[in-house]
Amino acid sequence: TRTAQALRTLPKTELHLHIEGTLEPELALRLAERNGVTLPFDGLDDLRSRYHFADLQSFLDLYYQLMSVLRTREDFADLMFAYLTHAHEDGVRRAEIFFDPQVHMNNGLDYNLVLDGLQDGIARGRDAYGIDAALILSVVRDLPVESAQALLDAAAPRASELLAIGLDSAEVGYPPELFEQVYERAAGMGLHLVAHAGEEGPAEYIRQALDVLHVERIDHGVRIVDDPALVQRVAAEGIGLTVCPLSNLRLQVVDDVANVPIRQLLDAGVRVTVNSDDPAYFGGYIARNYTALAETGLPVTALATIAGNSIEACFAPEEGKAAMR
Ligand code: ADE
Ligand code: ZN
């Protein structure tokens, strides 16, 4: 439709995207074969039948299982380039992309192999499309804090290749405050600071991410609507919220896309952005998230505001932002 086309061409950034969440089932099976990895699925139809999630954890179980097919530098390069191709088609000028090295390291891979492969894919995307991409080192919060510190040990020699640190995986029971020292150290390495908070967890976790971790953006953050004072504060401070509507729907955070509190947050003056999170699992890349909101009656003018917010909330230098506006 014309609206869908208009939403695709809006200049935008994507600020909440897990590269491992772009692993399409076809590619997962192809890499399993290429790398001799055995998966407990009987072909594509059987694998596809597993994409029904009751909550965040049931998604994470499949997401971590499929990550075992990623073995070589080329695998990571191919995965990144495939994502950047989708992103470019959806009007993305810049993407700030999470990766989960602890999982790959637990699968026996070297941190540098993972980083090299992702950087190869980013270079291919820049050459092919002029798209700008940067990496967010994401800490898996349901692994021990010592594992996060070991991750920073591995990441430190090439910290200048990283944009930011993030915090993801199972939220409830793993409050941000556990990672105070990890974030302090990451800040000392020159990284920007973001964290998932208020997806399944309470608004209190958003408050901790701000006050204890000193994050500059909140990933998801939809539960902030339970705390009106916090909504006012985040609006006043210009903190970006990276909301992911199709993710919230598929993980049963909401029962309908219309109930993702986008309009409420925009009306309160919050710097809301729209993103795809794990598009291979949740039914669409970023433009599909925009159109899903348009289908709920959110005006195209509001979606243009959101695309503008995504440029303001990104960590590109001011000249880079100006070039995207
Ligand atoms: N890892 C990948 N996607 C995630 C999400 N939506 N929440 C927490 N951890 C994740
Ligand atoms: Zn996420």
TrEMBL record:
Location of the Adenosine deaminase domain: 11-325
Any single GO CC term annotated in Swiss-Prot or TrEMBL for this entry: cytosol
EC number, UniProt record: 3.5.4.2
Names of required cofactors: Zn(2+)
GO annotation terms (biological process): adenine catabolic process; hypoxanthine salvage; nucleotide metabolic process
Domain of life: Bacteria
Enzyme class: hydrolase
Binding site for substrate: 278
Cofactor notes: Binds 1 zinc ion per subunit.
Coiled coil segments of this chain: none
Task performed by this protein: Catalyzes the hydrolytic deamination of adenine to hypoxanthine. Plays an important role in the purine salvage pathway and in nitrogen catabolism.
Name of the protein this chain belongs to: Adenine deaminase
Record organism: Bifidobacterium erythrocebi
